[in-house]
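In the design runs reported in the main text, the only information available to the sequence generator was the tokenized backbone. The following block is the verbatim input for one such run; it is reproduced so that readers can re-run the procedure and compare outputs position by position.
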């Protein structure tokens, strides 16, 4: 391996092997504004900057978070006192990353399905982000279950885009986070979700192999295998843990640096409990998993803090306490030490 490949592997391992997780704060401006609107918060660039500054300046955040995923607007912003957000993160030892896809768009010829765009001009954008100081990137694909979906055409189109993105990342020195998200909307059961997850991950890793992506220098960001939100049967945390990990064992190569779960539509408490069940059940087997398990949550960490802050900086300290609490709960879950009793001590 050359020096750049070794550095990429070190970065990937550092992001997942520290016993910490990743914080996704890469919402697009439109998505961030929608969340603000739900709470009656003003939807302006300055308010978005204030919210993001609240997150990255949370005291002790680096004890539980190894890296943060930023958005294009965010990576260019400065704190109120002057230092750039990137400098603030560097001072705390948190590695900055960047979302680089341009969103999921309707896929031609595939009603009800989407394909993620953003490959055009991506090489230049990745080079610019690396020069700014980003050391990893993220690309999200979305897969819908229901009414005969997903189609193989949708799966293959998204898998191909994810692999081309990942190869371009590694070419410029960025660790790619590969995120094929199976949406939780719908009435499907956990078995159907497991079947689709396995099908999607097979396609993704086939394409990663074809595009010569170095697996040791990438991170997979899947959803947990879960029933749809409208499914009448909702499995226990232990059942989710078993189904999820056994699915991953069938399709994720051992060379992959780590698996960082997204939270999807889970509450913070649900995500922590299910992550904890994986740690407890699979560590107890006495045979370590081939890759590190961790988290890469967004709303499951941010949402309680956002509701407390509500656009008012007089609530900043309490909001930061709530954010740190959720990060600490997930950190504990990675060790099998999370308990619902922790929720009374936020």
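Verbatim output:
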């Amino acid at each position: 391996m050359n020096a750049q490949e070794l550095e990429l592997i070190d970065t990937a391992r550092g992001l997942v092997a520290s016993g910490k997780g990743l914080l996704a704060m890469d919402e697009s401006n439109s998505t961030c504004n929608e969340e603000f609107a739900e709470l009656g918060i003003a939807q302006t660039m300055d308010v978005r900057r204030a919210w993001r500054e609240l997150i990255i300046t949370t005291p002790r955040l680096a004890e539980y978070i190894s890296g943060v995923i930023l958005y294009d607007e965010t990576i260019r912003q400065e704190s109120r006192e002057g230092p750039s957000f990137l400098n603030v993160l560097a001072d705390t030892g948190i590695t900055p990353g960047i979302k680089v896809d341009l969103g999921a768009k309707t896929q031609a010829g595939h009603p009800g399905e989407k394909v993620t765009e953003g490959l055009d001009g991506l090489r230049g954008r990745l080079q610019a982000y690396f020069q700014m100081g980003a050391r990893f990137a993220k690309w999200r694909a979305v897969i819908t279950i229901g009414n005969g979906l997903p189609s193989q055409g949708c799966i293959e189109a998204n898998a191909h885009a994810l692999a081309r993105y990942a190869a371009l990342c590694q070419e410029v020195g960025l660790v790619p986070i590969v995120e094929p998200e199976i949406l939780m909307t719908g009435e499907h059961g956990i078995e159907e979700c497991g079947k689709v997850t396995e099908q999607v991950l097979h396609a993704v890793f086939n394409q990663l192999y074809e595009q010569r992506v170095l697996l040791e220098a990438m991170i997979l960001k899947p959803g947990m295998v879960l029933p749809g939100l409208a499914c009448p049967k909702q499995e226990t945390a232990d059942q989710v843990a078993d189904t999820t990990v056994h699915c991953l064992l069938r399709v994720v190569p051992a060379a992959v640096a780590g698996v960082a779960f997204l939270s999807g539509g889970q509450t913070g408490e649900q995500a922590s409990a299910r992550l904890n069940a994986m740690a407890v059940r699979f560590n107890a087997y006495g045979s370590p998993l081939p890759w590190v398990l961790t988290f890469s949550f967004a709303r499951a960490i941010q949402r309680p803090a956002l509701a407390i802050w509500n656009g008012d900086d007089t609530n900043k300290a309490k909001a930061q306490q709530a954010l740190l609490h959720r990060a600490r709960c997930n950190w504990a879950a990675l060790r099998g030490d999370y308990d619902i009793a922790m929720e009374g001590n936020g």
